[in-house]
Amino acid sequence: MLLLSSTIAIMALFGIYAFLIKESYPALRDVGAELFLSDQWYPVWEPPEFGMRALIISSLIVTIFGTSLVIPVSYFIAIYLHGYASSREKGFIRRIFEYLSGMPSVVIAFVFLAFVSPLFVKFGIYSPQNLLLALMGLFFLTIPLAVTLILESLDSVPIQLEEASAALGAKEFTTYTKITSRAALPGILNAIVLTANRIVGETIVVLLLGGGAAMVPRSPFDPMKTLTAAIASEMPETPRGSTHYHALFAAGLILIIFSTIFELISMQILRRHKK
């Protein structure tokens, strides 16, 4: 049964890759290098343009900046809960984060769209939906996941390591950041990878809050459009078998390649850490 279930899971994974490659190939063949080198994403124009470089760059910007904002804040929250909070306070805050982690992303996006987006207009910002608003929504969406994962990693470290560090005269903060965190590094790296994968694959938040403009944002207040937003907004109305249809599958292939790269980087770092 274990062999059968493992085989099915592996076959499903490779099947997804094969299906995406198969459906993406017509767009790669017909559009060529323009698919990755052009910023002109106008699939319904005549003639249509299928340059998704701006979509790719926007996805990378959102992922890099979103992860860079979430992980440090989540790490220090987890450090506080692990070493400084009382058991009652820790349990209460942890339940809040677990509750927030189950909140639908569309609810978070709607709240920011209704209450935060109009504030940009009051400050004279030309686009009320922009990169900054999308990053804010992603921050509140992913911080419960990151805090929970990092906290579990810190709590799994044997207490003897912290007691030995304290016996040698290290302060609590030094112990938690240099001893406990080093021992929990595999779990922390896993939290970083899962958070990045969560952000790069998020759809509703960036679709509603990003502004929907296929352009490379030059400032936090510029609108943008990610690969996931393009797939979600355009696939339902795209004729099956058209170049536009296959180009959206190419966008999906790029997303899964990003996810695989994140995993490979994490595995490489873990191997070096074990050595």
UniProtKB/TrEMBL annotation:
Q: Which GO BP annotation is one of this protein's?
A: phosphate ion transport
Q: Which UniProt keywords apply?
A: Cell membrane, Membrane, Phosphate transport, Transmembrane, Transmembrane helix, Transport
Matching Gene3D superfamilies, A to Z? MetI-like
* Subcellular location, record wording: Cell membrane
CDD domains noted in UniProt: TM_PBP2
Q: Which InterPro entries match?
A: MetI-like, MetI-like_sf, Phosphate_Transport_Permease
- Going by the entry's taxonomy, the superkingdom of the source organism is recorded as Bacteria
Q: Which PROSITE patterns does the entry mention? A: ABC_TM1
Q: What is its main location?
A: membrane
What is the protein name for this chain? Phosphate ABC transporter permease
> Family assignment?
Belongs to the binding-protein-dependent transport system permease family. CysTW subfamily.
Q: Transmembrane residues, as ranges?
A: 54-81, 102-125, 131-151, 199-216, 245-265
Query: What is the recorded membrane topology of this protein?
Result: Multi-pass membrane protein
* A GO cellular component annotation in the UniProt record: plasma membrane
Q: Where is the ABC transmembrane type-1 domain?
A: 56-266
Record Pfam families: BPD_transp_1 (PF00528)
